[in-house]
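Structure ticket #2291
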Amino acid sequence: MNKRYLGIGAGLAAAAMVLSGCTPPGGSDGGDGGGEGGGEGSSVLNVGWNESFRSMNTETTNGNAVSNSIVTYLMNENFKYYDDNLELQDGNLGTVEKVSDDPLEVKYTFADDATWSDGTPVDAADIVLHWAAKSQKYNTESEEDVAEERDDEGEVTEQDEGNVFFDSASPGAALIEEFPEISEDGKSVTFAYSRPFADWEIELGLGADGIGLPAHIVAKKALGEEDPEAAKQAVLDAFENEDADALSKIANTWNTGFNFTSMPEDTDLLVHNGPYKMTDFAEGQHLTLEADENYTGPTEVGVDQVTYRINGDPMAAVQAVENGEMDLIQPQSTADVLSAAEELEGVTVETEDGATYEHVDLMFDNGGPFDPESYGGDEETAKLVRQAFLKTIPREQILDTLITPLNSEAQIRNSYTMVAGSPMYDGIVEANGMAEAFPGADVEGAAELLEEAGVDSPTVRFLYDDTNSRREQQFTLIQEQAEEAGFEIVNEGDVNWGSRMGDGTYDASLFGWQSTSTGVTESDANFRTGQQNNFGGFSNEEVDGLYDELQTETDPAKQEEILAEVETILVDEAFGVTLFQHPELTIYSDRVQNVSSTTVSPTMFWNYWDWQVS
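Resolution: structure written out below.
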């Protein structure tokens, strides 16, 4: 995968390891946990989360959020997933096999019992839709074409007839340039890559994304085809024949047709292929999943009902655990939250580094203080202003004030692409120069750079989640230092910050990235020109070329060299600055067994089939 989830609460990043045992899907005993609710003799688990679900499609800009992926992971099978050792495991959807090296060809074979919840087989049309939407191959409109048409929630508005825009992107999927080879029974699909790709094994069908939306339901909504088999064939025909009229309708449905914020009346939107089904969803309050009695796959779950209770206040979540209203939570970690949790009886509290990393990014193309166009196209002046601002970020003070009380061994993160402790981290940090360029709270150095640039009192609009207490504190610390150096900081704190990412209404942003894989190419989507996660409009031909090299490089030593070059350019161009790994708290009642967390999405949900309650 080449995308990362916006990390709002729980945290993640590639290569952090947590050593403990696990059981593969179907390996647990299941059975009755004896909880309350869900019918006589059923077991119920109440899970707390800090943001509400909003889309079944986790591949779009709007759907690309942890709050969605933790639900779709329980509702859908996959080809591959990560365990808590970050080791790649086989899922129950089918098999992935490399059948040729030159050219690189990868064959996906669906299990015989892989079935959508309405009885329709999961097969070729589903994975072809998944690939094609992410590849951008069929788009007739660019992101720039539709950027101004997005609504307040970040959703793409419906495109005119004949215009095709799938709101997704993956450089790996883009390397599959030809329509795939499909077996006669539709149960096997072979994709040919235009050149070698290092992360071929996890490009399609990984984790919470699975293979995405059911193609026959998309075609039913988009093309009016009621028969499932005819609908799937219509999807295949549209892509194979590059039928712009049909693809325009399919893309419009794929982009927004599966978004909802409360229980939908249209049950087609809830079609899934995994062991849990959605049975209740009250907007902003709770969402309930129940074991699907019609599920035909091998995953055996030990909990009959999982209810997500939505509460953005971490202290309130701890209180809910104490009151027995929640059994399992991963709230944002603060010293007060940790202290309150540790005082509870009958509760386990696990603390460790998560994999979300906090960072500040700058906007390069919005006409603001960091955009060369603001200075008549003068690249050097804009870079000096960017460098000056990043020098003011009090990285050490933020760490000492907010993170060290939770983890005495916490350290500043000095890499854009690797977490401390991973094999490549030290070498990349030694090469990239971030620690030297942006040591933190260098007010004098920042003022000197502004003077050199000849820019007086530049105004910076700063975006962050102002309902998040830790981010509020970070903003205050940053504002104090930046204004002392000569910047004017405008507080753009917004609870709906996620929907504003990349819209040009701010100049700097503070948030966290949450990884979905350990793939070496994962950061491509953050820094390559025009990619889905490159919200700041950064564009550098050398970086793009380095990622082209990285996609085909399989030697770890050379991969490290390439990433070090990428990061050196990012530091020199003042792309932004990294801060720290999120400390992670997993808090659960003693009535819950087999809780484990992994440092890629979907964190503590990765082994839901092992959960038991008593």
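Closing remark: The two ends are 37 Å apart (CA to CA).
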